């Protein structure tokens, strides 16, 4: 198992920045469209891993592993919380998944997000390389769109985490310091804990409402 993971990691490291950027954008698209919470957490974990690989050549080697570790910790927090808050498997989310209106709404949100990303990417306000700029602007803007349109705490929380990842990536690319990376890691972990608490509160409220 460990050998497989190492081989997969080495394969991902061999990707060009452009290929890695495209894969990160694909994970953002999945997160904006999916209704399956476990699939969303897996996509988020893949996104954190790809982000660490993207910035890896620009920072001190072990910091890449640290970034992946932070991503694993965040996704573990969310997954444990989701399993504990069993209401996520209830009919509320099943209805959302089967609703054509919800699907169309998410596609429309994705289209507006893509247009905004393209406009900002063309302007390149931060003067980043095309690949770095695409990732940064895609994460920030799609995260903001997802958080603004999320109707329950997990989607809202994932949107916030994506936006934070975008800001963190931009900061690390522009200011490649250990303190900066550590500070963003703390912010992301605290955000994940706050999101987990929100999910628990929301689940309790849903459960009490269903009992009534």
Short overview:
This protein has helices at residues 2-13, 17-33, 37-55, 61-84, 91-98, 100-123, 130-149, 153-174, 178-211.
Question: What would you note in describing this structure?
Answer:
Helices cover 85% and strands 0% of the residues. It has helices spanning 2-13, 17-33, 37-55, 61-84, 91-98, 100-123, 130-149, 153-174, 178-211. Helix 2 packs parallel to helix 7 and helix 3 (37-55) packs antiparallel against helix 4 (61-84). The mean pLDDT is 83. The chain has nine helices and no strands. The protein has one domain (2-211). By secondary structure, the chain is mainly α.
Overall pLDDT: 83
Strand content: under 5%
Order of helices and strands: HHHHHHHHH
Rg on CA atoms, Å? 17 Å
- The percentage helix is over 70%
Q: How would you sum up the global shape?
A: globular
The number of domains is 1
- Cα separation of the termini: 47 Å
Q: Low-confidence runs (pLDDT<50, min 5 residues)? A: none
Query: Which structural class best describes the helix and strand composition?
Result: mainly alpha
Number of strands: 0
């Amino acid at each position: 198992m460990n050998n497989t993971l190492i081989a997969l990691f080495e394969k991902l490291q061999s990707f060009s920045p452009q290929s890695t950027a495209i894969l990160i954008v694909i994970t953002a698209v999945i997160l904006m469209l999916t209704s399956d919470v476990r699939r969303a957490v897996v996509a988020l974990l893949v996104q954190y891993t790809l982000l660490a690989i993207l910035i890896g050549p620009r920072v001190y080697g072990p910091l890449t592993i640290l970034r992946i570790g932070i991503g694993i910790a965040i996704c573990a927090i969310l997954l444990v919380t989701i399993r504990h808050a069993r209401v996520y498997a209830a009919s509320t989310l099943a209805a959302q998944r089967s609703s054509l209106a919800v699907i169309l709404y998410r596609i429309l949100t994705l289209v507006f997000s893509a247009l905004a990303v393209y406009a900002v990417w063309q302007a390149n306000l931060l003067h980043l390389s095309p690949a770095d700029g695409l990732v940064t602007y895609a994460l920030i803007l799609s995260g903001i769109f997802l958080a603004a349109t999320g109707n329950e705490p997990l989607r809202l929380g994932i949107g916030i985490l994506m936006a934070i990842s975008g800001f963190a990536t931009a900061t690390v690319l522009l200011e490649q310091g250990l303190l900066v990376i550590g500070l963003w890691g703390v912010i992301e972990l605290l955000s994940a804990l706050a999101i987990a608490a929100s999910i628990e509160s929301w689940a309790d409220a849903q459960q009490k409402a269903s009992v009534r």
